[in-house]
Amino acid sequence: MLKGHGDDTYKYNNIKINFSSNVYNHFNQEPLFCYLADKLDHIASYPEPEPYSLEKSIAAMLSLRKEEVCVTNGATEAIYLIAQTFRRSKTAILMPAFSEYADACRNHEHEVCSFYSLQQLPERAQMVWVCNPNNPTGMVFDKELLLESITKNEDKLFVIDQSYAPFTLSPILTPHEAALHTNIILLHSMTKQFAIPGLRLGYMTGCEPMIEQIRKQRMPWSVNQVAIDAGHYLLAHEDNYRIDLYALMQERARMASDLNALGIVEVWPSDTHILLCRLRSGHASALKEYLATEHGILIRDASNFDGLDSSFFRIAVQTRKENEQLIDGIRKWMEIG
């Protein structure tokens, strides 16, 4: 695991606004907390050895068979399980991307290379990792172009991380579409969708033979009972976690414009609530420390993404009031610089 992920609030004691993880922090979680409080007696017993009941519920929601769903301890466990299942593969990662793809693959002796365009897919690759919507850029790859690449390369396994699917209006692959192909695995994050990063809950979908092969690598009881209970509650109350995406995308556009207007920040295009930013002068690490210590605002230093340098940082757009506080904090940092 590469150090330097987002949401390192544990390093600080005064964070009031968190832009650093790609989570929307404004759902009312009190009903979930109350529900889980009534289920705490469940922790006195072992959970299901495998989260069968939650897989069955997710499959029903997605109109899949339960054999086409594998629930994991966050999407990150799925990443490591896939790397373990296909260890020593020749693996290509579309960059920039989440660092855990490369970390997990190297941990299982893959031969890892980077590429930067779907039209330039390495011929020798046996596995291809694509983050779509992308982290850290927020961009969504053209669906037809992605499907064309998958269809033309049936000998390659495409692992497509769709953890940020709930935050875009752009078309992406559906689990049903993925299950019709023998060379696609989709990753999904309930952590991101329902803003529960402390619980660690995710799943993967794909054709039955592929999912079964990966499921064999999953440790017994890898998903704890509290997470399983939370998963059932969240699926039953999904309507309470709907985001007004049109309003969020409008706020993202306004935020990007205001950041660019500062003169010191260059903002990358995005199809989600994620904004990748580059400082025209100074270091993102210095801005991060200033905002955290002086304003209680946390951003993501993005310098450890492959292909990015010390000038890059990333934010997840929040409310207009919070976004304006971030703009004001950056402006004050510029004044003292």
Describe the structure.
- The chain is an alpha/beta fold.
- Helices cover 37% and strands 16% of the residues.
- The strands form 3 sheets. The chain has a 7-stranded mixed sheet with strand order 2-8-7-6-5-3-4, sandwiched between helices. Strands 9-10-13-12 form a 4-stranded antiparallel sheet.
- It is globular, with a radius of gyration of 20 Å.
- The mean pLDDT is 94.
Strand content: 15-25%
Shape: globular
Query: CA-to-CA gap between the ends?
Result: 34 Å
Report the C-alpha radius of gyration, rounded.
20 Å
Uncertain stretches:
none
Tell me the major beta sheet: 7 strands, mixed
What is the mean pLDDT?
A: 94
Question: Strand pairing plus helix content: what structural class?
Answer: alpha/beta
Helix content: 25-40%
How are the strands of the biggest sheet laid out side by side? 2-8-7-6-5-3-4
Order of helices and strands: EHHEHEHEEHEHEHEHHHEEHEEEH
Give the helix tally: 12
Number of strands: 13
